[in-house]
Amino acid sequence: MAKPDLNQALDAVEMVYGDIVAIANDMLSPLFDPINKLVGEVNSKINNYTVEEIRNFMMRLQLRAYEISETKEKSSLKAELSAALRKEKYAVIFNEAQGTAGTKDNTALLASSEETIVESLYNLVANLLRTKLDQLHRLVDALKSILMSKMQEAKLSMNNLE
User: Fold this and answer.
1) pLDDT tens digits, residue range 103-119?
2) Distances in whole angstroms, Cα of residue 125 to Cα of each of 14, 17, 38, 66, 147
């Protein structure tokens, strides 16, 4: 069984995590919901799609990847900016604080904790966008393989009929 201090720390992490994830989900939902719906369509009956339907899905997925690529880069910039702002606030508070270096460090850390959390939020958003974009590209590649396979099967069927 965990010590009471550890339980408090775990509870605090869970609370902040829940808040951060909820904010990130709200930020990304307009981008991810249509993608997730499209992936669900593809997944529902992938083996029954025609060559043309697979091509259509590939194009739609690639267009979604195009849409989020710019947002991904902007999100990375936000993550960098939030890190810079956190460091700036830390430095200002550290320089204004009185006492030993340890006391100044603790004061600056406490005063910049919100900026640290915002930095974590934007890092999460940037990473989620990067991951979703990578997965979209992998899915398009997988569909290419399925498309090639279906086209090869069709070619073999045509040759067998001759």
Assistant:
1) 999 999 999 999 999 99
2) 18, 13, 21, 17, 32
* Amino acid (one-letter) located at 129: L
d(CA 130, CA 120): 15
Domain hosting residue 156, numbered range: 80-162
The alpha carbon of residue 52 and the mean position of all alpha carbons in its chain are separated, in whole angstroms, by 30
Structural domain total, the chain: 1
Residue 51 lies in a domain: no
Residues of the chain predicted below pLDDT 50 = none
Contact present, 68 and 132 (Cβ < 8 Å): yes
* pTM, entire model: 0.83
**Amino acid, res. 137:** H
